[in-house]
Amino acid sequence: MKHLLKLIQSENYVYWTRRRDGSDVLRDIFWTHHDSIKLLNMFHFVLICDNTYKTDKYRLPLLEIFGVTSTGLTFSVAFAYFEQERQENFIWAFEKVRDLFVSKNLIPKVIVTDRVLAMMNAIHIVFPTSINLLCPLYIEKKIGTKCKQYITNDRQYEVMDLWKKIVYSTSVEEFDHHLQHFELVCADIITFVDYVKDSWFKPYKERFVVAWTNRVMHFGNTTTNRIESAHWRLKYMLQINNGDLCKSWDAVNMMLKNQMCIIKSSFQKTISIVDNVYTSPFYQRLHHFVSRTCLKNIDEQLKRVKMVGIDKIKCGCSIRTTHGLPCACELAYLQISATLIPLDTIHIFWRKLNMEHELEHEESLSQYDFLEELEAMKAYMKTQDIAGQIIFKAKVRELVFSHTTLKRPPHDKVKINGAIKNNKKRK
Ligand SMILES: [Zn+2]
């Protein structure tokens, strides 16, 4: 562990740790990188959390937090190793993430996770205003397992198809209709129907059924699956090195640096090159200011214009509410009035393309006033760049509030992943 900390400390990484009370034994580690903090503050709207239970040879759960850029690329925000996968450990890690934001206004609007109750509870406590979406693909896997358990082979495909129709319903009426049909078809397997309704739809439908998630500005990020490729590499590296992150460190470090290079280059390309796929004069005001991913989304709406026209009902306008982009009916209006798509119809998320300058427009940490005796510390802080300032503030918070962090009241009993398996056994 100590060796790992040395590695983390090198090359602009920054970490926080907690020790077991009265001992030298490390409980939890949280680490991030200067560039990750900058990206986090630019792309603070949506976070994706993935939790790998006991991958490490010391059997430590690993939490990875990701963000997504305007150019549609995934970046690592932070990693945390926990002694236990309990609510209290997640709270500690999410509090560290919260301290990385330049301003309270930048708290994520959406956090996408799998259904890990300890993590979800912690998110609710640390980010009470954020919407915690649940990955529908993760839920589909769980449903698939139950389906195999309760339903004969010849009916499984049909039942899973019905499940997907319910989840991808775009309106509440459609959802009710498909759910009723599902109940009818599965009337003879009431245990399965009860499981689907009581474990998923009743408590969580607003978090994963499209009819509800369509109202949330998630910029197209509703699954934890998009991080699988980057994540798989980290998982894979841990596997081939027997879960030893120290041995995997060079590879992990290389992966993160590579990720950062690709992101910076994607910004540069957007600024300097006009994409030859989206050359229509209709996009003229957007070239150099929004990413290819953004244009691709608008282009898909443009293809709907012929069918939708200016009919808001037909349009549904969900790309406006989920992505902050002009929907088909808006584009139809623009075409009628022979207006090029104005840049200000595009959400600011898609227009962030410069890691060095974007943050200067945000509130500076210097707004937080310290006591007179701390003038020297302030002077030091001003010599730092924005990421340096954020780290400095977070470290000061840790010192000042360490007693409140360590002496939390006892926690309610928390269900973790294992709880689901136990239920299965009881049935
Ligand atoms: Zn519309």
From TrEMBL:
User: Which keywords fit this entry according to its UniProt record?
Assistant: Membrane, Transmembrane, Transmembrane helix
Q: Does the keyword Transmembrane helix apply?
A: yes
Membrane spanning residue stretches: 62-82, 116-139
Q: Name one Pfam family in it.
A: MULE
Q: Which residues are in the MULE transposase domain? A: 46-141
- Cite the InterPro entries for this sequence: MULE_transposase_dom, Zinc_finger_SWIM
From the Swiss-Prot or TrEMBL record, give the protein name.
Answer: Uncharacterized protein LOC101490420 isoform X1
Organism placement in taxonomy:
Eukaryota, Viridiplantae, Streptophyta, Embryophyta, Tracheophyta
